[in-house]
Design brief:
The structure is a single chain. By secondary structure, this protein is mainly beta. Strands 1, 2, 3, 4, 5 and 6 form a six-stranded mixed beta sheet that branches. The chain has one domain (20-89): YggU-like (Conserved Hypothetical Protein Mth637, Chain: A). The chain has one helix spanning 53-66; strands at 11-14, 17-25, 32-37, 40-44, 73-77, 83-89. The chain has one helix and six strands; from the N terminus they run E-E-E-E-H-E-E. Strand 3 (32-37) and strand 4 (40-44) form a beta hairpin.
């Protein structure tokens, strides 16, 4: 599968960066960025949605996938939902 660039993901600007929606699938067989799911990025996570483990794994996988530092990625909405809102700071909007 072709890697999705951050500029290809539907996003909006705000709070000093860009905001994207992410649909997560916890307890998957492997961790991977699947692709676009409507206007959201779909990500499979091996972690269960317990005690914030899936949220931490999401930040880790997004930082590796986009080549960013973990501190540049912040979960700003949907901490207990499969639909999450993520703020990415320190990048230029294309």
């Amino acid at each position: 599968m072709k890697k999705i660039e951050l500029s290809e993901i539907p996003h909006r600007t705000g709070r000093g960066g860009i905001i994207i929606d992410v649909k997560v699938e916890p307890r998957a067989s492997r961790t991977e960025v699947v692709g676009l799911h409507g206007d959201a990025l779909k990500v499979k996570l091996t972690s269960p949605p317990v005690e914030g483990r899936a949220n931490r794994q999401l930040i880790e996988i997004l930082s590796k996938y986009f080549g960013l530092k973990k501190r540049q990625i912040e979960l700003v909405g949907g901490s207990t939902s499969r639909m999450k809102t993520v703020l990415i700071t320190g990048i230029e909007e294309d």
